């Protein structure tokens, strides 16, 4: 089951390259790589194969918690804990028709330097090294769906509401009707499979 998730970025690479080239030509941003770190922008990959739905969200921490440094104050730690709690409940974030499709979360994994703050002393040793790096949050989800034919789309309205710092999401979806790439916003949060 993890093989599908790991293979997904490679399967979607041509779509991301085209999207990245289009965005680069369109707004003349100075991004040299596919995974350019842009505040307000996130990436989402979703694959519906048989009764399995895999979803991967990659976002700068700024979009989800409002900062990228290691949480030091109680307020920062609360923001990280709140974001993590919301990410641990993906059904609402992705607008899954739980009753109709019968999708249940089988496995999830959240990764970020912000989540593993204990035992990491970044303050003194590595400040200069980390100035050019940006904290990101990656969320991986594996769902088993009893009636996958009822899963027609992802609706990210809940994600945009929960994380208002996220302005656009470049989504790549693979489903029974093939592969498509679409840019989602709070005004247009829905992508069909």
TrEMBL record:
Region (Disordered): 114-135
InterPro entries xrefs: ZrgA-like
Ranges of Basic and acidic residues composition bias in the record: 118-135
Annotated Pfam families: ZrgA
Signal peptide range: 1-19
Protein name in UniProt: DUF2796 domain-containing protein
Organism of provenance: Stutzerimonas chloritidismutans
Keywords associated with the record: Signal
Transmembrane segments: none
Keyword Signal: yes
